[in-house]
Hints:
The chain has one domain: Roll (2,3-Dihydroxybiphenyl 1,2-Dioxygenase, domain 1), CATH 3.10.180.10. 20% of the residues lie in helices and 40% in strands. It contains four helices and 15 strands. The relative contact order is 0.24. This is Glyoxalase. InterPro entries: Glyas_Bleomycin-R_OHBP_Dase.
Amino acid sequence: MATIESITLDVADPTAADRFYTAAFGLDTQVRFRASQAPTAGFRGFATALTVSRPGTVDSLIGSALGAGATPLKPAVKSFWGYGGVVRAPDGAIWKVATSAKKDTGPDTRRVDEIVLLLGVADVAASKRFYVERGLGVARSFGRAYVEFATGPSPVKLALYRHRALAKDVGVSPEGTGSHRLVLGGDAGSFTDPDGFVWEAVSPVTAS
């Protein structure tokens, strides 16, 4: 089973990006940074979702992200599926913080239960076939609308949305040009997928 060990964001200032993500979300080795001036404009075709256990944690993480310099895209609100909101980091990456719970049932911990990289693709079925051929098993699939892959104990999970549907979900226009400014690191090999997302071979991290 293929795994994803990390995502690397191309940013103008890696030191500033590291400072933001530490203060905003407390993220560590799952998100990496490298300097790049690659041109990009508008929606970069992906978003990263932080899944947490309760609404209070959503509010805490979004609050710290805004305090560290993020801009709001969608305020945290209740919906039929739970509670969540969306922000844009200073480097331009979009982050969704959400929980399936609608009420707090315990103390706020700021713990992130899952990191899920959401790729907006032109053809979900075609991209699904592409990734299955490279060793990613399918955990859930809803036709041509959404696919979630079974990546085992990976620090980062992977899911596919239709490009326009993902843009709507995170509250931005679907138009965008230039680099995704994103690289996925895992043991599936080095390649570029049909929508231009780049993968690099990275050895799985083992506990010492």
